[in-house]
Amino acid sequence: MTRSVWLKADDEVGDWEARKRRITAGLEAGVDWVLVDEADVERVRDLGSVNVAAFTNGDVHVMEAEADDSDADATVVGKDGEGDGTVDLPSDFSGSADLSSLRQNGAAPEGGYVRIFDEDYEAFAEEVATEADFTIVIGEDWQIIPLENLIARVGDETDLITGVTSAEDARTAYETLEHGVDGVLLDTDDIDEIRKTVDVRDEMGREQLDLEYAEVTAVEQTGSADRVCIDTGNLMDHDEGMLVGSMARGLFFVHAETAESPYVASRPFRVNAGAVHAYVRTPDGGTKYLSELQSGDEVQIVDSNGRTREAIVGRAKIEKRPMFRVQAETEGGDRIETLLQNAETIKVHARDGRVAVTDLEPGDEILVYHEDTATHFGEKIEESIIEK
């Protein structure tokens, strides 16, 4: 599931200057959506690139007349209507104006907004979910039970978005019933809280890998090859690196160049990843050849505990360098290998920590990621492939 962060920035937040400050903070933090009133859509567009959702009064004729003037990516019905309690809920939902708007063809709203005051509004939110692409629910006093009920009942009918005021609340919403919500609607002016909520979103969507130790069976000098340094637009920590290797089923953990050396300054944005033929793991769980990488591509950063995040490639630096062939045997008996540059600054991860490839010896145990599946054009496939 891809999680999202929506930022509430309608007139309930304050005047335009207050809304503008909040929206600007959200753009800088990397929120996915901004929820505003229709009159502010173009103003938001002027501030930067972000998905914009706009509250609408649900009047389909007005919406059709103004369709060319509004550039919202999605419209949301429920504010100043039944969804927020301004208009009483009908005893029979078939008479609901909000639901009627959602059921219209053409210019119908994509989203519904419901404040959960009691069980009737919870039931109304379920009905909205059957019609809306996005269902935004606001729990009064942060009641978990209605949210659990909606997660369990709504399923994949809609993207369920719940209102929160902090990153801690967002984490709870993402983790509720293990499945969690699709997104959160954040209502805060606290810049740090906005950033923390985006960090929680990113953390929830990251893959956790099971790394294992493999025993080094051979380390030998080879001739020179075209070596690739992956220079990213992100700084890496001391325990982070990338997964690279000659065989997609078995990738070696290679540290970023974060350590100082008598020979060269640290370059914490770089992983010296090996020869051009090798694979590097990508955030979608696939692989790319090192030779294919170019500015703007995404690669996966991994730490020694298997936690992952994404990085943007700034450049791929290819130069001819002397190489080592490193071969290792996994716990399951599979032999994997790769080519790494013959240099003290290239470090893999042994049980006692970082070790330079120039100091590796047969019998050492180093960290790898092993899968039993093959890949074709970087995608996992169930096929018999021999790599040696």
UniProtKB/TrEMBL annotation:
All residue ranges annotated as the 3-dehydroquinate synthase C-terminal domain in the record: 214-388
Q: Name one GO molecular function term.
A: NAD binding
Q: Which GO terms describe its biological process?
A: amino acid biosynthetic process; aromatic amino acid family biosynthetic process
Do the record's keywords include Oxidoreductase? yes
Tell me the keywords, alphabetical order.
Answer: Amino-acid biosynthesis, Aromatic amino acid biosynthesis, NAD, Oxidoreductase
The record's catalysed reaction(s) read: 2-amino-2,3,7-trideoxy-D-lyxo-hept-6-ulosonate + NAD(+) + H2O = 3-dehydroquinate + NH4(+) + NADH + H(+)
Q: What sequence ranges are listed for the domain 3-dehydroquinate synthase N-terminal? A: 3-200
**Known EC number:** 1.4.1.24
* Keyword Transcription regulation (UniProt): no
| Function recorded in the entry | Catalyzes the oxidative deamination and cyclization of 2-amino-3,7-dideoxy-D-threo-hept-6-ulosonic acid (ADH) to yield 3-dehydroquinate (DHQ), which is fed into the canonical shikimic pathway of aromatic amino acid biosynthesis.
Q: Which family, according to the similarity comment? A: Belongs to the archaeal-type DHQ synthase family.
Q: What is this protein called?
A: 3-dehydroquinate synthase
Species, as recorded: Haloarcula nitratireducens
